[in-house]
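Re: the 130-residue chain
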Amino acid sequence: MPKKFDDIVNEMDRKIELLGEEIIKNLNLSVEGYCTNKKDICNLVIYKNNNIIKNLESLEMYSVKALCLYRPVSKDLRKLLTIIKLCSMLEKIEECAVKISFVLLNSKFNFDRNDKYIKRMASLTEEIIY
């Protein structure tokens, strides 16, 4: 017996919320590693990136599959399209976290980068997601 469409959407909502929290943690770790010059933290961010991206891609494909199988109408269609768009936005945020980590890992200088702008950017991103 196939799942009800509402159950599928609720499941996707939970998954995207969990992924959003994980991405925010990764972004904050990346900024912390960058500001304190801790390369091991940045390596952890890069390591976790592959799993996060795979989960986002599978959620996006699951949304497209639900779109094809259930042929939702207006309200439900908007929910699915929002989930697909959120996956794309979260993926971009995750890519930024990884890029911040790569900047530190490729840097030849060891100094304390107490950059108020990058910390502010991370906190604003967190506010947007929550």
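The chain has a mean pLDDT of 85.
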